[in-house]
Amino acid sequence: MADLYFHTLLEESARIHGHLCPGQILGVRMGILGLREIGIENPKGNGRKDLIVFVEMDRCATDAIQSITGCSLGKRTMKFMDYGKMAATFLNLNTGKAVRIVAREEARKRAKEYFPEIENRYTAQSEAYKIMPDQGLFNIMEVKIELKPEDMPGRPLKRVQCDLCGEYVQDMKEVYRDGMILCKPCAERGYYTVQTDMGYQKGIEFPDGDNQELIRIL
Q1: Consecutive H or E run containing 55
Q2: Do residues 186 and 174 make contact, with C-beta atoms less than 8 angstroms apart?
Q3: What is the Cα–Cα distance from 164 to 27, expressed in whole angstroms?
Q4: φ and ψ at 64, to 5 degrees?
Q5: Cα separations (Å) of 44 from 72, 90, 153?
Q6: Residue-wise DSSP of 175-192
């Protein structure tokens, strides 16, 4: 029964992600283990309001964890921490219990020991990750998570307008500097550089030249 459940989860994860790979299998195993450790049996049913997951990579395993848990960025139940690590933390909001699970690097090397007859290392990893014991695949630690009210699921607690670009910022992600309310791109430089407004951006009227000078500085 457990094997059937596991393979059903693998199939669902592959359907959402588009293919099955070693990262997907690690993510499914990670999700099953994390949910078990924090005591949530039905993450898409009566446990859905008690679960938040922090993922530390934007790779295949994250799609797998989303498919297992039902958590997502849009629901604010999945938090993306851009650490570049094959790791995730599972938090039970009801009990406060949280565990962080990290894939063990040596599991990649040991996969060949399980299936020496398979030449392709990715195929060997995929097959090995299905059967390796949890303690051979992961390091697991109990951790403490303190969530701010603005990071909880639900409606935004606050919505303000950036004094420079005029765009609105919610969930208390604004920055206060020199008496101004700024969005993070205006305050800290964003991931994009505006080349043209394409005719959609409304002009911003400034009462004096100080803000224009600040735009050039930022």
Answers
A1: strand 51-55
A2: no
A3: 41
A4: -65, -45
A5: 12, 14, 15
A6: EEETTEEE-HHHHH--S-
Residues 150, 156, 159, 162, Cα dihedral to 10°: 60
d(CA 108, CA 111): 6
- 165-198 pLDDT, tens per residue? 999 999 999 999 999 999 999 999 889 888 877 7
Looking only at the bridges linking them, the beta strands covering 78-80 and 51-55 are parallel
CATH class of 2-149: alpha beta
Calculate helix-pair angle for 60-69, 2-17, nearest 10 degrees: 120
Closest Cα partner for 102 from 86, 91, 90?
86
The full set of domain ranges for the chain reads: 2-149, 159-217
Helix (H) or strand (E) holding 17: helix 2-17
pLDDT tens string 113-140: 899 898 888 899 999 999 999 999 999 9
Residue 53 sits at φ, ψ, to 5 deg, of: -120, 135
> What global pTM score does this model have?
0.84
Closest CA to 160 of 173, 177, 179, 178: 173
Which residues are within 8 A (CB) of 86 and not within 5 positions of it... i.e. 6 or more apart? 23, 26, 56, 57, 59, 61, 102, 103
Q: What is d(CA 133, CA 54) in angstroms, rounded to the nearest whole number?
A: 23
What's the Rg (C-alpha) of the chain?
Answer: 22
